[in-house]
Every structure is written in structure tokens, then in C-alpha cells.
Write a structure and sequence with these properties.
With 577 residues, the chain is α+β, with helices and mostly antiparallel strands. The protein contains 20 helices and 19 strands.
């Protein structure tokens, strides 16, 4: 009886187990059928997500070169380290290897990974050199990957920093011409679909989705040789005169091209650690100042165009000062009677004021406006200031007089350079260009050519004996220009001991090609007049630029000129042979 019960019990248990196994088998078969037949797209999709990836191919940013195709900004290939946090955290025992390769603290690295453990992509280190990349690759730690990128490098460093600007870590323009021409330089990244293995290595390129398009080359108007010269001389002057800052601009008056533009203090765009944003600004286009006596040539032009004055007109400047509504305007000396040329040569504030009072505010404002003051130069440079030129209807009698010698308006270095370039080209204003110009350039006639020529003759007297800018003379060349010394505006008026020192001029005057403006802010070395501080910088840079560009002298003695011509002919004959 007992044996019979045991047999029945065993049979029941077998049937139960058989039923259970049968049910599990049926469920498994159903699941397999569901996944492989009914819902196979789901598995296929997620399988591909774990092995097939769309990879971005970075575009090579276009090179920036000077007018002679010397590189000013280039992109070099580098690697960036990225990771899948959860894969690294699965091998925590190897965090020390990773932190050592990345040169970071292990605890900091672990905290970073844990905070972002839900992500599939984080950067650990950007733009490392090939040696660092190989060190990281050799660890073989799972979850660590390398991605090719490009890093911008600036061969001339601080010499061209304020013109070129720089890019960020993603190779996108942030300042200067890098920003202005970012679309031209950037190109377009490509994309491709790849197959990765379990370690994340690409084992097969599946297809190209989008072809990479490299950025285009940007050819600037800048001449790197002149740029270096301008930067060096400006920096030396800033140090010598213990000035707080300064800027310098050289234009080709024929084409409107910017041949050089430098500012101080500068910075190294290849290493910007610790720099503040004010270091980045290009003072030649963003900073404004009252131009002082460098405005007087335009006052003279307005007087000549008014029909009330000729070059022979005489102005009484004695006793060396005048009062306008109890405001005193004075000269350094009592110059007595001066013609228009000597108002420029001696830089008479009284003479310029009397001319402005006679011709009226509208006439003077029209001239200032036509030369570009109060509006930006349309150069396209980011952050360019339009300066300040108030409407003449708001001028008082005193303001009219002070605008005549450069107070009550504000200009940039680039604006002042364009205005002097317009005088250089007989009153024809050419558009400013930071890009190399091919072929002739048309312009706009803003004053009669004859008036511009008469003013240029007056400017030549400034750098001759008895003028305020003798230190701007360049041996062998006729030079025309104007000194400027303006007091700095402070709360409640003007400082007695803080100045802007300026010189603006052109050469060779017989057929002006180069225009140069030098501005020194707040010289504290004892000298502060434009003729003492800025004029010598003008002479050094202009002399070097004329030589670099092989511009023929126009002020040599007959014998010396004959020798040069003979040497020139000899060189040509030798070349012909």
C-alpha cells in the first residue's frame, strides 16, 4: 500500500516538473519568435546603436596669410580625449593609470565620471599633442577614446594678435578677423557611419554621409615685415615714455589697404591663460580720443573751400590768446600774424579757432563728416567704433572753436588714418580693406583736388625747420604730416598732466603712397608733445616701410639721385643679361 502511494506521488511530481519545463520551453519559444520574427526591428536597431556610430569629421580651418603669403594663422591636427563614464567606472582599479596619463587628480577624475555616469560622451581633455595622445592610447583602459580635432596656431604671436584675433577650443573665431571671416575660414564638417568593436575601435567605414569641406584661405592686406617693424617701434616707444598704451596704423593710400596695425599692450594668442578681456581689444579701431592738432588740416581745408580764405590770407593770432564767452584759447607763443601755412606749421590754436568762427559750424561740420569722422570706416572689423561728432546745430561758439583744433569730437586711429589717406590721394576717399586688393580701387571725391594739394604743401612745412614735427623727417623723402597733443578728459574737465601724443602723416609727398598714424596714450617719461613722442616713431616706421617696399626717394640731391639711378640701371642691365 505504502509502495503504491510512493509510486503515485513520484508520478505526480514528474508530471508537475514536466509541465513546468514544458511551460518554460513554450515561453522561451514564444519570446524567441517574438524577438526574431515579430519584433526583430527592435533588436536590430539597438544592436546597431551599440556597434554602428555616426562620426563627425572635423573640417580643416582655412589658413590666414599676409599679402606675401606668409602664414599668420594655421590649424594643426591634435587629439581630444573623450570617455563613456560607466565603462571606465566598471574598471575603477585602473583610474590611477588614466589620471596619470591625463595629468589630473584621481579623486577629481572619479568625481567627474560619477557625476556624469548616465552620459554616453564627455570630454576629459581637449587638444593634446601626439605624444600625450599616444600615452593615453597605450593604457588600453576601456571607455577611453581619442578624437581628431584641429588647434589654431599663430606664428607671429603678439605681433599680429590684435588684427588676427583668435579661435576658441572648437576652432570658432572669437575676436578680430578670425571672427569677422569665420564663415569663410570654417568650412563644413563631414560625417560618416562606422562600425566599432567592443573596445570602441573603428573596424570598418560603412558609408560617407556628408563630405568634409575645408575652410578657404584668407589673404590679408597686411605686410608682415612692416607689421613687425610697426609693432617693435611702438612697443619701444611705450616703454621709453612709460605710456599706458598706444596704437599705430599704416595704410596704402592708393588702394586703401591696411599694411600694418599694432597695439600695446598686446598678448600671445597661443597662450591666453590668465589674460583679461581688455587685453584682446584692437585699440586702433575700438578706442577713441580727441585728436588735438591733427584736426587742423581739415579746418584749413574747410576755410579754403568756404571762399573766404586763400593760402595767402593772414590771420592775426596776437597776443597769443583769445577769449570766447570767458573761455580762454591760447597758443604756446605769441605768433602774431600768420598765413594758413604757418597756422599749420606753428600749430596755432588761435588761428584755427578764428578760421572756424568765420566760416561757421555747418561748413566745418560738413568737412569733418565728409572725411569720415563720426562714422565707422565700414572696414568690417568687429567692434569698430564710429567715434563722436555731434551735430553742428548743438555746437556753442566755444565748441565750434575747439573742434577746429581737435577738441569736442572723438576719433579712432583708423578713422584718422583714412582721413589723412584722403588728403594723400587729392581728396579721393578709398574704402578701407584688411584683405589684399587686386586691381584699381575707385573712391569718392570729398574735397576738390586743388584744395587737398594746397593742404599737403602746408603739411610738408611741419617736418621742416621751424615746424613742430621735425623729428618725423625721413632722409631722402618728402614727408607731410601733423603733430597732435591733446589733454585727456577727466571728470570736471581736462587733466593738466595726462595727454595723447599723436603724429599723422604721409610719404613720399610728391606722390603719396604710405599714410601712418601713431597714437601714444598717457606718456609719463617727461616728454608728452606729439613732436617729441609720436613723431620719432613715425620716422622710424616710415623709413623702414619705404625701404621694404622699394619706393623711390623723391628728395635726394641731384648727384646722389644720379648715382642711385645709375646703380638701378646697372642692376637692370645685369638682370637682362
Amino acid at each position: 500500500m505504502t509502495q503504491h502511494r510512493i509510486t503515485i506521488h513520484n508520478q505526480g511530481r514528474r508530471r508537475f516538473l514536466t509541465a513546468c519545463f514544458s511551460l518554460v520551453t513554450i515561453l522561451l519559444l514564444w519570446r524567441v519568435t517574438d524577438l526574431q520574427v515579430l519584433n526583430n526591428e527592435y533588436l536590430k536597431l539597438h544592436g546597431e546603436e551599440r556597434s554602428v556610430r555616426v562620426v563627425t569629421i572635423p573640417a580643416h580651418r582655412g589658413t590666414i596669410v599676409d599679402r606675401n603669403h606668409e602664414p599668420l594663422a594655421i590649424s594643426t591636427p591634435v587629439a581630444s580625449v573623450w570617455a563613456i563614464p560607466r565603462e571606465i567606472l566598471a574598471a575603477k582599479e585602473r583610474l590611477s593609470e588614466i589620471s596619470s596619463a591625463l595629468e589630473t587628480d584621481p579623486a577629481t577624475l572619479q568625481q567627474l565620471l560619477e557625476e556624469r555616469s548616465s552620459r554616453d560622451f564627455i570630454y576629459l581633455k581637449r587638444q593634446i599633442n601626439p605624444q600625450e595622445a599616444e600615452k593615453i592610447r597605450s593604457t588600453g583602459v576601456p571607455g577611453i577614446y581619442l578624437q581628431q580635432e584641429y588647434k589654431r596656431y599663430y606664428p607671429a604671436a603678439e605681433i599680429t594678435a590684435h588684427i588676427i584675433g583668435f579661435t576658441n577650443v572648437d576652432d570658432t573665431g572669437q575676436e578680430g578677423l578670425e571672427l569677422a571671416y569665420n564663415d569663410w575660414l570654417s568650412g563644413a564638417p563631414g560625417q560618416k557611419r562606422v562600425l566599432r568593436d567592443a573596445k570602441g575601435h573603428v573596424v570598418q567605414d560603412i558609408e560617407s554621409i556628408q563630405t568634409v569641406r575645408s575652410g578657404k584661405e584668407l589673404v590679408l592686406s597686411i605686410d608682415q615685415r612692416i607689421q613687425y617693424l610697426a609693432y617693435r617701434e611702438l612697443k619701444n616707444a611705450i616703454i621709453r615714455h612709460r605710456a599706458s598704451s598706444g596704437s599705430i596704423v599704416m595704410l596704402d593710400s592708393v588702394t586703401g589697404e591696411v599694411l600694418a596695425m599694432a597695439g600695446q599692450p598686446s598678448y600671445n594668442p597661443n597662450d591666453r591663460n590668465g589674460l583679461r578681456s581688455e587685453h584682446y581689444r584692437n585699440r586702433a579701431v575700438t578706442d577713441v580720443f580727441e585728436p588735438g592738432s591733427t584736426m587742423k588740416p581739415f579746418t584749413i581745408a574747410a576755410a579754403l573751400m568756404s571762399g573766404l580764405y586763400t593760402t595767402d590770407s593772414i590771420i592775426e593770432t596776437g597776443p597769443g590768446y583769445i577769449y570766447i564767452n570767458r573761455h580762454k584759447i591760447e597758443d604756446i607763443h605769441n605768433y602774431g600774424k600768420l598765413d594758413l601755412l604757418n597756422i599749420i606749421r606753428k600749430s596755432s590754436n588761435v588761428g584755427a579757432s578764428k578760421l572756424a568762427l568765420a566760416i561757421g559750424p555747418e561748413q566745418l561740420w560738413n568737412i569733418c563728416s565728409s572725411f569720415g569722422f563720426g562714422q565707422d570706416t565700414m572696414s568690417g572689423y568687429p567692434g569698430e567704433s564710429p567715434g563722436l561728432l555731434n551735430n553742428f546745430r548743438n555746437w556753442s561758439e566755444v565748441e565750434l572753436a575747439t573742434v577746429a583744433f581737435g577738441y569736442g569730437l572723438a576719433v579712432t586711429n583708423l578713422q584718422l588714418a583714412q582721413a589723412y589717406a584722403t588728403l594723400a590721394t587729392d581728396g579721393m576717399m578709398k574704402p578701407i580693406s584688411f584683405l589684399k586688393v587686386e586691381g584699381p580701387v575707385s573712391g569718392q571725391q570729398v574735397i576738390p583736388a586743388e584744395v587737398a594739394r594746397e593742404v599737403k604743401i602746408m603739411l610738408e612745412s611741419v617736418v621742416t625747420e621751424g615746424g613742430t614735427g621735425q623729428s618725423a623727417a625721413v632722409r631722402g623723402y618728402r614727408v607731410g604730416g601733423k603733430t597732435g597733443t591733446s589733454r585727456k578728459s577727466i571728470a570736471g574737465g581736462y587733466a593738466e598732466d595726462r595727454h595723447f601724443s599723436l603724429f599723422a602723416g604721409m610719404a613720399p609727398l610728391s606722390s603719396p603712397r604710405l599714410v601712418l598714424v601713431v597714437t601714444i596714450n598717457d606718456p609719463r617719461g617727461g616728454e608728452y608733445y606729439g613732436g617729441q613722442v609720436a613723431a620719432p616713431v613715425f620716422a622710424s616706421v616710415m623709413k623702414g616701410a619705404l625701404r621694404i617696399l622699394d619706393i623711390v626717394p623723391d628728395n635726394l640731391p641731384a648727384v646722389e639721385n644720379a648715382v642711385i639711378m645709375a646703380q638701378s640701371l646697372g642692376v637692370k642691365e645685369q638682370a637682362a643679361r
